[in-house]
Every structure is written in C-alpha cells, then in structure tokens.
Design a protein that fits this description.
With 407 residues, the chain is of the alpha/beta class. The protein contains 18 helices and eleven strands. The chain has two domains: 249 residues, Crotonobetainyl-coa:carnitine coa-transferase, domain 1 (Rossmann fold, 3-Layer(aba) Sandwich); 84 residues, formyl-coa transferase, domain 3, CATH 3.30.1540.
Amino acid sequence: MEANRDVNPPLSRIRVLEFCIGAAGPTAARCLSEYGAEVIRVESRARPDVHRGGFDETRWNKTPSFAKLHRNKKSITIDMSTEAGRSVALELVRHSDVVIENFSLGVLERWGLDYETIAAANPRIILLRLKGMGLTGPRAADVAWGPNLCALFGQTYLWNHPNSDVPSGEARTQHPDFMSGVVGANAVVAALIQRERTDHGQLIDEAETEVAAWLLGPTYLEYLFNGTDPLPIGNVRSDAVPCGVYPCAGDDKWCVIAVETDAQWLQFRRAIGDPEWCHGQGFDDTETRIANRDRIDKYIAKWTAGRSSREVFEILQDNGVPAAPIQDVLDQLDDPHFKQRGAFTTLNEPEMGLVTTETPPIRTSNGFPRIVHTAPLMGEHTEEVLRTVLGLSAAEIANLTTAGALF
C-alpha cells in the first residue's frame, strides 16, 4: 500500500525514558519508537547491558541483538550510583511522558525513582515496571531471566517430545521477554489514551510469567474442562493426521504438514497422486487415521524424502493443504513472498556496516510503524539530550562529566 509520509507519527509528541537491560523492556520501548515516540535509553559504561556487549568495549556497537532491540533510540550515559547522575535522571523524568524499567525489584527504589517519587515530580508520568514475577507476591524479588521463565510457566515441559528423558531445555528465543515487550507497549498506549481523558499518569505492573501463562490458555482449559493433564506431544496434534514434520531432500531439510479435516485428507491424496496405500484402509476417516498415525507418517516420509521442502510446500498448498517448509535464516532471506512484502530491510550500522534485519510486521496506509535510524552508539546522544531536553549549557555538561555523573 502507498504510504503517506506527510502524516506525523501517532506518538511523535511522546518521550520515553528507558532504564532497561535484556530484551523485555527494550522491546516495549522499541515498539513505541516505531510509532514515532522519542526513546531515550539511559545506560552506563560502568554496568553495560549484556546485549550491548557486556564489559567488552570492542563489541559495544557491534552486537546484532543490540542493533535489533535498540534501533530508533537515543543513548545517554548516566552513572546512577552518583547523586548527580540520579538528579539528572529525575530531571529527565520531569520532561518525559513514559518511563520503562525492567531491573530487579529494588533497583529503582535505590535510585530514588520509585513511582511515588517520580509521580510527585511529574503527575502525568506513566511508569511501566516490567518484572519476571511482578511487583508483588512472595517471589517478586526473584532473579528473572528468559530461560528461567520458560521453565517456570511450562514451556520447557510442554515444548518437547513425548516420553523424553529430559525437558527440552532453554529455548533459543525466550518468548516471555519479547511477548512481554509487545504487551507492555500496548499497555503504555492504553495509559496514554486514558491520560488524555484524566490528565494523570499511572503505574503499570507487568509480570512476564503472567504474560507467558496467558499464551498457554488452551492448556489450562484442557485441564479445567476435560480433566486432562496436558503432556508434551512433540510435533503432532492429537486430533489431526497427518500432522508433523517430514524429512525432505537435502541436508537437514524438513516440511510441516497438517491435515485437519477429512476434506483436506482427500485434497492431500490428490496432491500426492492418490497412491495405492491410501486405498482400502479406511484412512478417509479422521479416527482411523489417528489410530494409524505411525503407518501413515512412514508412507508420507517416503514421498517427501524425494522432494525439496519447497516443492512439497508448493504442491500441497496449491491443492489447499496446510504445509510449510522449515526454513533457516538464509531460506527466509531468499523467500520470494518475504521479499515482495519487504519483510527485511538493510541498515547501515555505524560500526557493523550493512546489516539485514526484519522490518516492523505491520503495514498501514500512513507508513507507520517504521525504522528511522540505527541503534545508538554508547552515549551517542548524551550532550544532545542534556542540551535540548534539559537546557543545560556546555559548562554545566562539562561539570557533570568531570563529576563522573555521565559515565
């Protein structure tokens, strides 16, 4: 669709102050930035974010995860262990609309930036506190990390093959972190809408574990309504056959196939040439197919093994059968559908050069959300923010630097 670049971004007059590490809080702030919010990331050379590169200064501006999480943002360095640094931070709060933080419980309080204090300084402020376990409850002070939360809410148990000796372990993508960021951004937008009506900000208490549990709603309902304890089922579905991943030609190439109805089964039969093994077995009935899952899977695996995953995908989809190739990163970058929709874009990162990354997954007629600029260098905008937002003079900024407040 044609983008109207003359339209101001919907959050163009919103300033977000980000006190975050990891992925959850930064994802929330990044989502807001893609709709035009000015996001000022507060970080410190004394305690650099692991996604920034930790204490290895040579990696600070060369880490792919940081480039993804912090595009569109500004970076200001403040040493929050100093009184002068904390004073600068509180002054920035007075000039902001939203504060996002996801440190361990107690960090914000030690900095004197608890909700009561910042609301007294700025009654219109919206504070999103994104914690692994939330602000209250007996485990609120627990150390939260993506893999820990995956285990706690059941992902490592359910995301596994049946009868496996061990849980699936750490997922490469910590769903609670990224989903909590998206949910948190939605909560902030709702709070901004309410502020337009009331002229008051609010505190948002978000627990990643509860966001994760929210994603597993059907498993709870399975137990509550059917009395069945959900178990790991691997790649299959209990009510669909064939349903799973099947080997294809090539090294570690696979395709997903899911036949949910008897009508789809007949379409599947036609797509694969209606082989002899489909006849006289009663396989046109879902219950019979479920009872013969292993036999059917072996037949299908022989058919898929002689074809590429994309060929299997195209044959089945052209016949109305749900299927998809299991693609690695290179496959995705070369996918003609993704190319046509502009799912990926290339950014010129200052110290990494040309980097391909995903674009925001929404298309609108006014051109938002969008990527405006690359992730900031460490402290790249410190002087600019202090000068333009707080109105500090060059001498005042120099004094803060000398005092170690801007490290």
